[in-house]
Amino acid sequence: MTDTTASSIPERRAPSQAWWNAVNAWLLLLPAAVLLVAFTHYPILATIRHSLFITKRNGTEVFVGLDSYQAMEADPIFWKALINNFWFALGTVPTSIALALVMAIWVNRNMRGRGFLRLAYFTPTVLPMIAVANIWLFFYTPDYGLLDQLRGLFGLGGWNWLGDPSTVMGCLIVMVIWKEAGFFMIFYLAALQQLSPDLEEAASIEGASRWYTFRRITFPLLMPTTLFVAINAVINSFKLVDHLVIMTKGGPNNASTLLLYYIYEVAFTFQDSSYAATLTVVLLLLLSAVALVKFGYLDRRIHYQ
Amino acid sequence: MSAITLNRVSKFWGAMRAVDDVSLTADEGSLLVLLGPSGCGKSTTLRLIAGLEEADAGTISIGGADVTHLTPAQRKISMVFQSYALFPHLSVAENIVFGLRVRRVSRAERDGRLKRVADIVGLSHLLERKPSQLSGGQRQRVALGRAIIAEARICLMDEPLSNLDAKLRHEMRTEIRTLQQRLGMTMVYVTHDQTEAMTMADRVVLMRDGRIEQNGSPEELYNRPATAFTARFIGSPPMNLVRQGDRLIGVRPEHVQIVADGDRAARVKAVEHLGADSIVLCEIDGQPISVRLEGFSKVQSGEDVRLAWDAAHEHRFDSTSEVRLDDIANEDRLAASAR
Ligand SMILES: Nc1ncnc2c1ncn2[C@@H]1O[C@H](COP(=O)(O)OP(=O)(O)OP(=O)(O)O)[C@@H](O)[C@H]1O
Ligand SMILES: [Mg+2]
Fold first, then answer.
1. Does residue B334 have its Cβ closer than 6 Å to ligand 1?
2. Where residue B287 sits, what CATH number does that domain have?
3. Based on the domain organization, do B56 and B150 belong to the same domain?
4. Whether B43 and B166 share a structural domain
5. In this structure, are B30 and B121 located in the same domain?
């Protein structure tokens, strides 16, 4: 089939064979494609459409064009949520990644109690979110909480950590870092175990210091993992909602409202589904921007093994 | 000052004695080959010299200084890994100059040396590639380049040519040997290819199960194997060993002749024609024996022939301990004279 001068039999069979191959491939992809279309693509399109309509009390839909978007632009809480989300991402993503990497390198070494340490770092990830939120609620409780008891040791007064707009975001960031770092560590650990120890040995023979080896060898080789983890961290920072429901309800005075939590409130507390759809479109745009940066730019600059 | 000395060095992996009480010296500016079958502890010995493994017993010194507890970097060596250990995200050029960068060698000097080394290993046209885009042999040459660019006084090589084709292997063999002599490097070279060992080495250390079986010049190993194991390992085809009572009689295939009035009857089992010579595989009383004949032998398989060899070419080994017998005789004589 590769040679045009070949006998006529394979030549005649070639088109039908190619056609059959294509059909076969599509059929094999069909189940996954159906699920993807039904539960991902269709809802996205439906959401975009929904954001251009409003629903009357009697259930009829009226086309309003970009009205909802204009309302959103004038909505201070939306902006507040967006800015909060920005600070929240900035606070959680780099720190949790750095911490995960440090922990992974630490745990990857050959030492006693390694298994125990790995498990300990991983525990926050295994705990159910509600339990996590309750633990941290206890830490942050004014006067009785762990944090305030520690402050008491130094003669400092109680502090309403989650009730004060200046500290509530910091408290959430610390908790999320605590939860995510252990999870990301597992990915780094897996990646580190894939690296051949020969590379470090070769570098050490050439006289490279540990830091130099990390900078020029280990870290670049971990880049695919870092990218994966970073994307996940960014996405997670936009997806946080359950902890807010339990711990702060977005308060005080929307100081801890994040985008998805605001969407949740608009949709289920205020029952304004078309405005919720509008906000969702914004969230989708943000997340697709993240995906675009990954696939369009970063992937080309990273060495994959 | 770059002689390497190992003094009663051991390395255990649990109960496994990977290196067991090994003592050897590689003289300054010489090439020492560690030879032996797979798993006999060659790589482990090399890694002990490099400082990548900690010795469980014994001392290692380089240039007279005890380095047993120094880090690899402090030992100032270069090394070719059996697995190449190339940095997958760096180009060939960056891989080769990695060590020079670490030592902050100036850019001009780095480029100059890179050019020279790339020519030697024949990679000049591939410098921008990543290791994953190279063939096995090309990768091996990158590893080789990275080791020789350092121009370290001591170079350790772990089977650096195992993946090359016969022609390239021959070329690189000569190249490495020339380079080693020109720069006066002390080199420890691991291989399980006895041709490499015989052609390159100043000294060959034959290992077996973590112990040194014999340590000597290539000629000594070939002409006076200390044990039946050495006799079987060196030479291709290896030395014939024929059991006679409590002895093993060893004769090299090239010393056996097929003659009409030979004193041993044999039957031809197979004939291998190698071009310049032929190997005739025979059997004496059920024991295999090979004969090397010049040119294209006309002996047929199944034929009955008579073999003969000069008694001066016989090597005698004890059949249980497999130790060379004239050595035992010598030792007895020495012991007797000491008394
Ligand atoms: N890290 C290790 N842990 C346990 N055993 C090991 C380890 N490294 C090597 N060994 C064992 O030590 C013995 C010697 O290994 P070594 O790598 O030195 O062999 P070698 O002579 O280089 O063999 P080859 O020619 O196949 O490379 C082997 O039996 C091997 O199984
Ligand atoms: Mg080896």
1. no
2. 2.40.50.140
3. yes
4. yes
5. yes
Q: How far apart are the first and last CA of chain A?
A: 33
B41 CA distance to ligand 1 centroid (A)? Answer: 6
The interface predicted TM-score (ipTM) is 0.81
Domain at B158, CATH number: 3.40.50.300
List the Cα angle A261/A264/A265 in 5-degree steps: 90
Q: Is the shortest distance between the CB of B44 and ligand 1 below 6 Å?
A: yes
DSSP H helical ranges for chain A: 8-36, 42-50, 67-73, 76-108, 114-126, 129-140, 146-153, 168-194, 197-205, 210-213, 219-239, 242-247, 259-264, 273-292, 299-301
Report the C-alpha gap between B153 and B22 in whole angstroms. Answer: 23
Proportion of chain A above pLDDT 90, given as a percent: 25
Q: Are residues B218 and B231 in the same domain?
A: no
Task: Among B197, B222, B247, give the residue marking a domain's end.
Answer: B222
Q: What is the pLDDT of residues B216-252, one digit of tens each?
A: 999 999 999 999 999 999 988 899 999 888 899 999 9
Domain of B247?
Answer: 227-338
Please tell me whether residues B215 and B282 are part of one structural domain. no
Strand order in the sheet with B315-318: B240-244, B247-251, B315-318
B191 close to ligand 1 (CB < 6 Angstrom): no
Worst-scoring range by mean pLDDT, A55-69, B66-80, B207-221? A55-69
Q: What is the pTM of this model?
A: 0.78
Whole-number pLDDT of residue A13: 60
- Residue of chain B whose Cα is closest to the Cα of A212: B102
In 3D, which of B193, B185, B186, B182 has the Cα closest to residue B160?
Answer: B193
Asked if A49 contacts A256 with a C-beta cutoff of 8 angstroms, the reply is no
N-to-C CA span, chain B? 40
Q: Which domains does chain A have, with CATH numbers?
A: 2-50 (no CATH), 68-301 (1.10.3720.10)
Asked whether the bond before A128 is cis by omega within 30 degrees of 0, the reply is no
Question: pLDDT value at position A7?
Answer: 47
**For a substitution probing ligand 1, which of B6, B16, B190, B207 has the most ligand atoms within 8 Å of its CB?**
B16
Decide which of B192, B222, B252 is a domain's last residue. B222
B37 CA distance to ligand 2 centroid (A)?
A: 9
Residue ranges of the alpha helices (H) in B135-289?
136-149, 166-183, 194-200, 218-223, 228-233
Q: Is the peptide bond before A252 cis (omega within 30 degrees of 0)?
A: yes
Q: Percentage of chain B with pLDDT > 90?
A: 68
Same domain, B232 and B146: no
Q: What is the pLDDT of residue B316?
A: 92
